[in-house]
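FAQ
Q: What does a multi-component entry look like?
A: The components come first, one per line:
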Amino acid sequence: MEINGVVIDDTYAEAFPAWISELIITAANRYLAQEAAEHATGFASSVIGGGVEAGIDRYLSPRKSPDGRPGCMVLMAHPDKKLLQDQIIQRIAECVLTAPTTAIFNGLPNATEKIPVKLHFFGDGYEYRTKVGDRTVWAIPIMGGEFIIEEQIGCIEGIAGGNFLIMGTDQMSTLTAAQAAVEVVNELEGAATSFPGGVTGSGSKIGSKKYKFMKASTNDAFCPTIKQKNPNSLVPDGVKAIFEIVIDGISEEAVKQAMADGIRAACRMIGVTHISAGHYGGTLGPYKFKLHEILS
Amino acid sequence: MEINGVVIDDTYAEAFPAWISELIITAANRYLAQEAAEHATGFASSVIGGGVEAGIDRYLSPRKSPDGRPGCMVLMAHPDKKLLQDQIIQRIAECVLTAPTTAIFNGLPNATEKIPVKLHFFGDGYEYRTKVGDRTVWAIPIMGGEFIIEEQIGCIEGIAGGNFLIMGTDQMSTLTAAQAAVEVVNELEGAATSFPGGVTGSGSKIGSKKYKFMKASTNDAFCPTIKQKNPNSLVPDGVKAIFEIVIDGISEEAVKQAMADGIRAACRMIGVTHISAGHYGGTLGPYKFKLHEILS
Amino acid sequence: MEINGVVIDDTYAEAFPAWISELIITAANRYLAQEAAEHATGFASSVIGGGVEAGIDRYLSPRKSPDGRPGCMVLMAHPDKKLLQDQIIQRIAECVLTAPTTAIFNGLPNATEKIPVKLHFFGDGYEYRTKVGDRTVWAIPIMGGEFIIEEQIGCIEGIAGGNFLIMGTDQMSTLTAAQAAVEVVNELEGAATSFPGGVTGSGSKIGSKKYKFMKASTNDAFCPTIKQKNPNSLVPDGVKAIFEIVIDGISEEAVKQAMADGIRAACRMIGVTHISAGHYGGTLGPYKFKLHEILS
Amino acid sequence: MEINGVVIDDTYAEAFPAWISELIITAANRYLAQEAAEHATGFASSVIGGGVEAGIDRYLSPRKSPDGRPGCMVLMAHPDKKLLQDQIIQRIAECVLTAPTTAIFNGLPNATEKIPVKLHFFGDGYEYRTKVGDRTVWAIPIMGGEFIIEEQIGCIEGIAGGNFLIMGTDQMSTLTAAQAAVEVVNELEGAATSFPGGVTGSGSKIGSKKYKFMKASTNDAFCPTIKQKNPNSLVPDGVKAIFEIVIDGISEEAVKQAMADGIRAACRMIGVTHISAGHYGGTLGPYKFKLHEILS
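Then the predicted structure of the entire assembly, as tokens:
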């Protein structure tokens, strides 16, 4: 299969079930909302290292946010609902409550499962209930004014680990194609990327061939600079750089669309020669997103 | 004491000793360097909540970075050197190694204490030693090319918790003044702020008067919206918003200069009426930065 | 009439007919597209001073642009079609052809009037016709690669000068509300603002009372700082700052929607007390956008 | 001559004398200052097309600006002092006076030549003289508050047209190197670039071989995509993209340093193979910046 001359490998992305929450962070202007959202989704590339996978799903204009201020829809994912709750509470407390002029709203109001945040106790008795539109919220007095928070955050069974690999003739062209794919994922609803800037150039394999104490090491089969010395190399001829985009989403459909539209965006950029995907023989999870299927 | 008509309270900021490391993160362009640095310093407002206090000390142009690429000097602080090491390793592994085109260099080459990162094992035997200028580094093959890392990161005994409070007549003017102060701190060497955007509007006190199970709660004495109902309020008349800037630095001198220049910047902005500082009767730490002294 | 407690004056915005073109500027990434679009719409606040009114209508993701790369829809307006053509040609030649990796496409493909750009002669005979999707374009060899341009730019009879005034209790809050309104206008299709950042704090009246040689001078009736000494002041009590948003659009409907949604956004922000609009007794133009009508 | 393996052509950049002014634009925050400065320097790539060459020389932190607010030093250049004055007045009136919260100060206070702006007449008699530090300024009442302006802008005999060419193996790597060079120029004092983002990929030659009515056409000798069919091609083997950086500066020394440091920055980036410079047999101007001399 080819798209614009780019070879699409006949393979699949392996993904796993995860609990997904979405929070809306609003602020007095777009910069303040983004600063808080970036802080709250920082150090959150992977569940193992950062405690959660988190990313900005999409920007919300004042027309689309609950309180009429600029906002960001933030997606957080974890296979364990209790650990997801811990991270949501910690990250709101550390990164959003502390940020200037922010408020928090439930980004999945239709979800039947809810994660209680209970941050209103921070108000030490001065907090009070009020309304923003038809949403009941707490208003908590703080130094900068009042912090508004809707304390039940929706939570659903979604998917983590959707992914694809973009391969190309040189580092900067391939990265530019990956960034175009991220722009598309950031526009779609219900999907987010958790790596810095949405792209990673450093995939890993489980364990290590040489250093037995390492739990993970570089995905040497896909490292272009060692193609010649690595008998197991899977790097196609002419490929000098490979970048991966990992996608978490609220449903199979959301992940599929983000993968398909992201791949199509990458295939229109110059220097891209191959698209592939990461899978681990079922050890990572039960979902299989077959590239040829989702792109047909 | 007054500066441009702004009252400077006769008080002091209480701060505590902390181990400080500085890392240089470079990348192919300024956006990529900043994205990695922001990810690495996200969720790091306070040691208790985020495991470390981290912020971007300053931007480095290609003329000033070790490999001639745009970079960010990132400061991380923790009272416990072992826990600082853990955080540095985790945050490099999750947020910098994974980010496209990045490299890591020691930001405190003259420090005698070193934190070993040992990320080269990730190369699974394909890594090799090389030189960037006069620095010995590891080159680790990754999907996107090679990750360059200087694996001994300098570490010194510095200071965390330098701070000041900016009080003003309305929320947005006071916040604008706080942002001017942050611009100044970001320009100075050896000091950084760890809150989102460098400013917090949500200070806390230890414990809670009403909810005994809370370890911390809103700093009600400085909450303007409850001034009338709170007999302990310390909010000056006319003050409608208070923002705090917390500064970590590599030395007393660096913290002092950042506080003094930051306060002076805030005092030139409209709407600012009072400057104060946070202290806790010595329970937080032994350092006292007296406002009148550092501003004279 | 009131919205969220904000008084909406019973008045109207006076606007005038103008020829409107829309260009799509794409580039290898979002920053490059925005840099070119900002340069092309710089020095273009008003027809008299800058030769044209120009602004970025909206951002286009790779999914929505003709060549699958990030792009900006740029709107340009002038009452005189020939002068609009001159400006479009000059601004493409100076600001887009010169910018790295850019391409130009017609943003109004359904418009029956076309403005010919004829920039392909720049190729000195090396240019050639090709296709991007179903669009016929010229490919012009340049130092950086090839410049792609669709040389017929659509042009329609639209409207310039739609506007509203946002009045509030202090400068920064009122400006923050104005910026929220601009975010909304930037999200809507077919409307753009031409002032820097979309907001102006410096409206003018025709002529001058004191200096007869001046063609225009400050709109003193709406200057808060001279309310006390100006017997003609129209500044409501308590208002300390007034910002104006001026909107050009491809149709009455587009201008109406941008005004209505922009005003609603402003009315949800703190510190805003009054909304009004600018009119000039019919000397500026025949269109009247009555605030109470468009908001009902 | 080689730097890091990059061939430095034994050639020179030809430049011409120009009157140079520098304005300081400050605003309530960095974004507002940059928006105004970008608007004021938009559509200003070349004297012929945009009426002036203009660019942001450097960012000024609150510590370094006359009124203690974030600012931008803006450089404007024109061979004719009267036409430079016209452009400065028009661009301040259209792009800075209209932008929210801005002020204007003289960026060359030691220059003996002055350009009078006389914008205070806009105040219609309500303007008054006041002081910012030791600078005498006008305060002009406007809708958003007051516009502060120092009305004598310094002007000196400087240089326009300093330049160099960066050649490399692919478009995005070569562009990335050019952007690193621009970062360096933006850090240095007294020099600025006038093209969008500081880089151009579309150089021109005088006249046209094929179309006699064209005053300028593509610099075909340096167009990589037509190397095979153009007998006059000067594109080195293996070069796939060429980007140019054009520098205006307040003195020979400022242009030399910007060229030298910019070239050195470009030579450290991957994919760059050759550096050259543009000259026109003395028809453009009398200054010759020899690459080997300025880099030794």
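Q: Is there any commentary attached?
A: Sometimes. For this entry: The interface with chain B takes residues 28-30, 61-63, 67-70, 176, 179-181, 183-184, 186-187, 261, 264-265, 268-269 of chain D (CB under 8 Å).
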